[in-house]
Amino acid sequence: MSTPSLRTRLAMRGLDGTTLLVLPGLAVMLGLFVYPFFYGLIDSFAPKEGAWYANYVAFFSDPFQYRTIGATLWLALPVTIVNLAFAVPIAFRVRLMTRQRLLTTILVLPITLGTVFVADGLLTFLGPQGWFNRVLILVGLLEAPVKLTNNYWGVFASLVITGFPFAFLLTLSYVTGIDPAIEQAAATLGAGPRQRFMKVFLPLLVPGLAVTFCLAFVQAFAVFPSAVLLGAPAGPTRVISIAAYQAAFEQYDHSLGSAIAMIMGGVELIVVMLILSVRSLFYRGPTGGTKG
Amino acid sequence: MIRDQGLTSKIWRFAVWAVAGLFVINLIGIIAAVVVNSFATRWLGTWLPVGLTTKWYFSAWKEFQLSSVVLVTFQVVFTVVIISGLLGVTTAYALARRDFPGKRIVVLLFLLPLLIPPLTYGIPLATVLYQLGLGGSFWGVVLINLVPSLPFVVLVMIPFIEQIDPRIEAAARVFGAGTGSLFLRILLPLLLPGMLAALLLVLVRTIAMFELTFLIAGPTSQTLVVSLYYAVFASGVRAGQSIDAMAVIYMVTTLFWLILALQFVNPTQIVARAKQQPAE
After folding, report:
1. How many domains does chain A have?
2. Closest CA of chain A from B16, distance in Å
3. Cα atoms in the 13 Å half-sphere on the side-chain side of B154
């Protein structure tokens, strides 16, 4: 018996002509994503002047720069928690609706229109003469208009408007993935609504909610156009993406810009890892109720 | 279906619907504020504008040079859709059909751009593109937009291809179909619905993609959303109604494709990965 040819041996391991179809796409990703990433990483250690770590020292010793991390987290974490806290109960209600399509279509609007459009709309809507203030004065909740644009709350509002539908639609796709028979079984055995949620649904949902939290957080953490247009980009809403953009494209220091971009990715990664490690403490398993 | 009838359940249900209703009302208010303002002659300190006019659309179209901006937007978006469609479907086919060493790393590579903030990879990539002399050019904008859109097509198409039975392809081979006719007469018709959905979603996302386009776009390669950003950023220079007229033009171009996309996909699929949902 002779050994099989090289072609046969490769095909046994899943490598044949079809596998090669992966190459063009892979080449694009290597060229446009992996290479620039490492280029940026190395570039960030080659500052205009000073030692190889000078960019990182410059960032962490200047309060104007390092405070952007806190400012970004101070926006992104509360927004994500609020969005998720509202998304879960509403998704549980909507799950029972037979005609969800209209609601989901309305909610998908701000996601597709994007933050720039929403920021433009909010500037009018939340402005001192906008409908929001007018309605609150009309019903008597306010005496005089409150300032809601060009500060923290303007950016907060824009992140809720685009972030809540995102968190909601993701949660909805997880909630509808749970077999309703499980809930019926729990109800038959006498569990009330609160017990059914806490003891049946929540454990099944935790993995999905952790992923939703991460994705919603990533979006909020990357806030950029609305922090400039609706916030105070020199003050409390000077988020880290503004710092990175200014370094790279306003001071033309691409080395420092890359360094801040890397710090941004690092901080985000730490938060995501923390959330995913919390998730691993919970149940992981099938959410379907049918047998095998 | 379980319906609880207790008083607390009723209050809770009411509260949940009230919050959802408030959100939808505010959302509609934001969009309506833009649309109403774009038709306003003068709107200061009143519930509704004094009079209505369409003149802002003509002035916005001229002031912001929208005919060329809209043209560039569609050129960029369709180029991105065609390239990411061609590369994405072939890559997804290989990933769905073969199990090869290192496959997990390849899949992870396609997941990463969707998990990392766009500016984190956008700034180094824009630096590289500027050094290659592509800064501000049409192809620079196309290339930077491929980074999120190609993985998106791949990840939407993998489960779609997996559900097509490989035995259909084997049967076609048995009856003597070559690679060309196998692709044209068997795979393409089966893949078409999924491809259409994936590509329309990429189209909508690319029209709205601000961060990456903004980093690289020059005066002649701006898309609508970047022009809109600059207009809002420099508001005060031009009439607010003119800016809002441009925002409405942007909204109409996006919504046209969104409505088309919604003929093929469920709204939840725009954020979540395509799931095999039973036909309704």
Report:
1. 1
2. 6
3. 34
B97 close to A (CB below 8 A): yes
Using a CB-CB distance cutoff of 8 angstroms, which residues of chain B are in contact with residue A187?
2
Domain contains A169:
yes
The enclosing domain of A257 has a CATH number of 1.10.3720.10
Prediction ipTM score: 0.88
A227 within some domain: yes
- For residue A202, tell me if it sits in a domain: yes
Q: In this complex, is the C-beta atom of A61 within 8 Å of any C-beta atom belonging to chain B?
A: no
- Given CB atoms, is B204 within the 8 Å cutoff of chain A? yes
For residue B102, the 8-state DSSP code is T
- In a domain, residue A288? The reply is no
Domains recognised in chain B with CATH numbers: 1-53 (no CATH), 55-270 (1.10.3720.10)
In B60-79, the residues whose Cβ lies within 8 Å of chain A are: none
Q: Cβ A86–B19 below 8 Å, yes or no?
A: yes
Yes or no, beta carbons of A90 and B16 under 8 Å apart: yes
Residues of B in contact with A229 (CB under 8 A): 229, 232-233
Residue A107 sits at the chain B interface (C-beta within 8 Å)? yes
Give the pLDDT of chain B (280 residues) as one tens digit per residue.
Answer: 566 677 888 898 899 999 999 999 999 999 999 999 999 988 887 888 888 888 999 988 998 889 999 999 999 999 999 999 999 999 999 999 888 888 899 999 999 988 888 989 999 999 999 999 998 899 999 999 999 999 999 998 998 888 888 898 889 889 988 878 888 888 888 888 889 888 998 999 999 999 999 999 988 899 999 999 999 998 777 888 899 999 999 999 999 999 888 888 777 777 765 444 433 3
**Residues from chain A contacting residue B243 (CB–CB below 8 Å):** 120
Query: Where does residue A192 rank: exposed (0-12), middle (13-18), buried (19+ CB within 10 A)?
Result: middle
Distances from the Cα of B11 to the Cα of A89, A98, B2, B7, B16, angstroms:
13, 21, 17, 6, 9
DSSP string, B67-101: HHHHHHHHHHHHHHHHHHHHHHHHHHHHHHH---T
The residue in chain B having the minimum alpha-carbon distance to the alpha carbon of residue A215 is: B115
**Domain assignment of residue A231, given as a range:** 50-279
A109 touches B at CB < 8 Å: yes
Count CB-CB contacts under 10 A for residue A290: 7
